[in-house]
Design goal:
3 domains, six-stranded mixed beta sheet, Immunoglobulin-like, globular, 3 helices, mainly beta, single chain
Length: 499
């Protein structure tokens, strides 16, 4: 493949993620956290006054469908964990109807997929939820895990953090059920998102066991003439999982699935790293990625790249145009150093065969975005990520997470600039709930591209500067490292947006 210049958005993303690897504590040596940390007791019952997750601010459906959308559990034969190539599988899709999607999810062990595995609605990963801006999405979550508390976070969605919306301070005890209601703004960016537990102290255990699923907000780029007719393929990338043959990574619950395309055929792939700690350094033999979106947000123009590094929680939308007949591997390339080193492994196999078809025209310009570089900044802050500070294993600004302490207060409508400084020798993917951001600089050097994201990895001993506008919603939510072992051990802070 001929060399090509690396677009600035991807160059910075490589810099930010290249050495972020399998849980900073390693694959086999990851610390299992059971039961949650002290102080995270189950909440008051629904409707009790004073609890932030219940009572005032709770939403109900305007008009619900006659029945909840139900996913069909996958069969035992769908758990293909041998070396492959194996049969391609996608999770079931549940779509909104007449502006409402009402879903039932049970979080429960899934022994058929292996020891210690968990799943939503009996599928691994969970069912894909598809809806549009302006819709109402209701998810009734039943905790059938057999002991641990759990909850639900809709990663990347710009929705309220209060009441029974995206409220990560709310916990659901074993055997109990709770209904979340998300009002999707009419101007919400269309793109790829995901959902997972956010129970502090058990996030790593639950997500690494398989509790995750994709969400797709439809519209936007979907309606562009070059993209609208293209088949879509969703990739929920997970792992590592222990099997009798060793540790494996999966795409939609399958080890090394096989995709078959005709020469010249074009598809849209939605790639999502929904693992707890591992990174995916993706490269497809003989094929560039035509990048059109990151973290649920469109890019203003297409960028052609040879590899994409996705840290935990990150997503990328790409177009793939099949080359000549042959067999090509989608790999996660080896990278990282020390305790964050991760070996190369095969993600999937692409077989190109059959009669050639005319390649579809690829878009150039996509969807324009506001450049926050020219906006007035209301406040500047420095946020420091630390390891081993004052005896704490992981901390932010010298403090470990405390759900009763608000670390940062911001004004609704303000645009703030944050210098995210990493004082440790490891990479830390910064993620903030509710509001996306624009990266302005990396290690003090201008970023040079306009895009939005909800997760960015902080280089060891370096910094990333971001700008974000806190719009639409007041309330408490969190920002944290998305290596979930780091989050569970304290690398998370509480932010409150006030009127």
């Amino acid at each position: 493949m001929p060399d090509r210049p690396v677009p600035p958005v991807v160059a910075a993303r490589r810099l930010n993620c290249r050495s972020l690897a399998a849980a900073a504590v390693g694959t086999a040596g990851a610390v299992a956290l059971g039961g949650g940390l002290a102080g995270m007791a189950r909440p008051a019952s629904a409707g009790e006054a004073g609890h932030p997750g219940h009572g005032a601010g709770r939403r109900v459906l305007p008009s619900a469908p006659a029945a909840m959308a139900q996913a069909t559990p996958v069969a035992d034969a769908d758990f293909q964990l041998g070396p492959g190539p194996n049969r391609w599988v996608e999770p079931p899709v549940l779509r909104s109807q007449a502006g409402v999607l009402e879903v039932a999810l049970e979080a429960a062990p899934l022994p058929a997929a292996g020891t210690g595995r968990m799943a939503y609605a009996g599928t691994l990963p969970g069912p894909t939820l598809r809806f549009r801006p302006g819709d109402t999405v209701a998810v009734t979550l039943t905790n059938a895990l057999g002991g641990d508390m759990t909850n639900l976070h809709v990663h990347g969605l710009h929705v309220s953090p209060e009441g029974n919306s995206d409220n990560v301070f709310l916990m659901i005890a074993d055997g109990e059920q709770f209904t979340y209601v998300y009002d999707i703004p009419a101007n919400h960016p269309a793109g790829t998102y995901w959902y997972h537990p956010h129970h502090h102290g058990d996030s790593w255990q639950q997500v690494s066991s398989g509790l995750a699923g994709l969400m797709v907000v439809e519209g936007g780029q979907d309606d562009l003439p070059e993209i609208a007719p293209l088949p879509q393929r969703l990739w929920a990338l997970q792992g590592p999982f222990r099997t009798p043959d060793g540790w494996v990574h999966t795409a939609n619950g399958v080890v090394n699935p096989e995709i078959t395309l005709q020469p010249g055929q074009t598809e849209r792939w939605r790639l999502a790293n929904v693992s707890a700690n591992d990174a995916f350094n993706l490269a497809l033999d003989g094929h560039p990625f035509h990048l059109i979106g990151l973290d649920g947000n469109p890019l203003p123009d297409r960028q052609d790249v040879d590899d994409i590094v996705l840290g935990p929680g990150e997503r990328a939308d790409v177009l793939i145009q099949a080359e000549a007949a042959g067999t090509y591997l989608l790999r996660s390339l080896a990278w990282g150093e020390g305790g964050q080193r991760q070996p190369e492994f095969t993600v999937a196999t692409l077989t190109v065969t059959g009669a050639a078809v005319a390649p579809a025209p690829l878009p150039t310009a996509l969807i324009a975005l506001e450049d926050l570089a020219g906006a007035a900044v209301d406040r500047r802050r420095t946020v420091v990520f630390q390891e081993g500070y004052d005896g704490l294993p992981y901390s932010i600004d010298g403090a470990a997470f405390d759900h009763d302490v608000v670390n940062t207060v911001v004004q609704l409508g303000d645009l703030e600039e944050w210098e995210l400084r990493n004082d440790s020798a490891e990479w830390h993917p910064f993620h903030i709930h509710v509001n996306d951001f624009q990266v302005m600089a990396v290690d003090g050097e201008p970023f040079g591209a306009v895009n939005r994201q909800d997760t960015v990895a902080l280089p060891p001993g370096g910094s990333v500067t971001i700008r974000t506008r806190f719009t639409d919603f007041v309330g408490r939510f969190v920002y944290h490292c998305h290596i979930l072992t780091h989050e569970d051990h304290g690398m998370m802070a509480v932010i409150e947006v006030v009127p």
